Amino acid sequence: MFQQIFSPSVQHTLDLIGIFVFAISGALLAVRKNFDVFGIAVLAEATALGGGLFRDLVIGAVPPAAFTDLGYFLTPLLATLLVFFLHPQVERIQVGVNVFDAAGLGLFCVAGTTKAYEYGLGLTASAALGLVTAVGGGVVRDVLANEVPSLLRWDRDLYAVPAIVGAALTALCIGYDVLNPLTSALAAVAAFVLRLLAMRFHWRAPRAWNRRSTVREEPPDQAAPPKATA
Amino acid sequence: MFQQIFSPSVQHTLDLIGIFVFAISGALLAVRKNFDVFGIAVLAEATALGGGLFRDLVIGAVPPAAFTDLGYFLTPLLATLLVFFLHPQVERIQVGVNVFDAAGLGLFCVAGTTKAYEYGLGLTASAALGLVTAVGGGVVRDVLANEVPSLLRWDRDLYAVPAIVGAALTALCIGYDVLNPLTSALAAVAAFVLRLLAMRFHWRAPRAWNRRSTVREEPPDQAAPPKATA
Amino acid sequence: MFQQIFSPSVQHTLDLIGIFVFAISGALLAVRKNFDVFGIAVLAEATALGGGLFRDLVIGAVPPAAFTDLGYFLTPLLATLLVFFLHPQVERIQVGVNVFDAAGLGLFCVAGTTKAYEYGLGLTASAALGLVTAVGGGVVRDVLANEVPSLLRWDRDLYAVPAIVGAALTALCIGYDVLNPLTSALAAVAAFVLRLLAMRFHWRAPRAWNRRSTVREEPPDQAAPPKATA
């Protein structure tokens, strides 16, 4: 992804970091759902690679990077091992995991937008696909775990908006022909900081006006993330 | 889709109408599930574009139409805005929405079959893919919303059969080399009318013989669609 | 798949057997979930063809075999008819179905690995895709039926491990250039026997260490497969 912009090794390292933190989030959900070690590995792989896999299928980049780069495949397995043996410790540093996840979100929305544009999509479609790259893995994770995707729930802090901002900024930079390592990094940082602020101040998006839902809302203790116990 | 048959602008308008009404059905489910505005938009896009996206990936038409035509991407956002601000009104005209959804079903099963055949699939496979184009978006919608797909449930009025009839009629017309705007329209209308009749008379498909299911059936008030309140 | 290895007709017959038994497992779940006859057909098709369809999309083999070979499409419909009319009898021979499903698992992990390698993937990626070919249909089945994928659950007998072993053996044979009908068959038989042993002795994979899950475990009578009644 945006190979021309960063040196390949820097970009590859950033990709692997993003994959690693997304895999951690998948593995942690698998532990909470009582899955066995293979379930943990499957959910880690799907969360880490799902978004990029969908993007590559849409733009016709087959076989997708997830199946051609061994590092992409092995990194989620590393995350699986870590969570398998140390998950109470990993959950205790949930804040740290969330910060890394925000970094992954920032990196992936920029990289996804750039790669989609390189494959000939328009600017709007590239930004939309960048968004899907960033948030798609989390949706696959929640669908496989038979949960309502956290992305769609109103009682979760903003997740789509930071990715939309990062992808839109990247598309704007491409449109004005000023995409370079600096502006790419700025777009990623904007998404990253926005996500951190959303988590810090519990920013949420509005639900429909005059809502008269017939769906019973879950009790708050269900909706809250599980507490990590010492 | 079937560009040679209707004039492109007529066909494009029909496509956008189908996309719009499918998006409305996705957005309404999102409101019922208490999703926030981004959840509504995601479900609207997925419902409207999911079936065609799957078809385009299968026939190798990448990037899919959903990512190359800006109108396809923006129409579901329009539906999102409408439902976000006016959803009690939209639900009150649920009957009207259902009629449009039936129209979308008719249009998409014909267009999907035709496009699949143009890309070299056999007649049976084309009809199967036309069916998937028509009903796929609704399945994606229900899977993302963590519900049993309405398509599969026995307590829903026939939905697959009208699409199967429309797709099969289209494949027959292709097979006998009589596909033209008139026969295409007839196939779409046949699916449309069949769906309207199924809704009007609550036609349902049989379940397996000698059923001794161990799954508790949901109480009827759960299964019934939510009432719109004035 | 691996056309050069077995004579095409033998391979095709093996494929159809695998598709048939996977379709049976999808159709039986649909009956338990109270789906109507079209829901049974959809779940049978998705279970039987889902894994191979995903593999073909990833390796760029479009249109996928599922849409070019009429036999692949019709076999699940045959399974649907059988289960629709005779499902108490089919459930009573659940043991037999499980044995055939294990055979399908063995065949598909070998065939999937071989086909992925033929399309240019590396050995590790080919084995991973062989695994996905074998277990993907079951995941699609469970996601469509709105259940936690049986593949991920700790309270199910080992399913992934036999497929991993079969796929890895196949990749090893390719790597040492000794893949032939005999070694292919041995790899498939290894996966088959391992799965039979896992079912016989209820082998299960471990869950994460120091598990303190906040998810309530389902009561055992829910988790147990439904009894077949005479």
UniProtKB/TrEMBL annotation, chains A, B, C:
Major subcellular site: membrane
Transmembrane keyword on record: yes
Membrane topology: Multi-pass membrane protein
InterPro entries, alphabetized: Gly_transporter
Subcellular location: Cell membrane
Every Glycine transporter domain range: 13-87, 99-173
Keywords associated with the record: Cell membrane, Membrane, Transmembrane, Transmembrane helix
Entries under Pfam families matching the protein: Gly_transporter (PF03458)
Membrane-crossing segments per the record: 12-31, 38-58, 70-88, 95-113, 119-139, 159-179, 185-203
Similarity comment text for this entry: Belongs to the UPF0126 family.
Protein name in the entry: Trimeric intracellular cation channel family protein
Organism: Streptomyces broussonetiae
UniProt lineage: Bacteria, Bacillati, Actinomycetota, Actinomycetes, Kitasatosporales
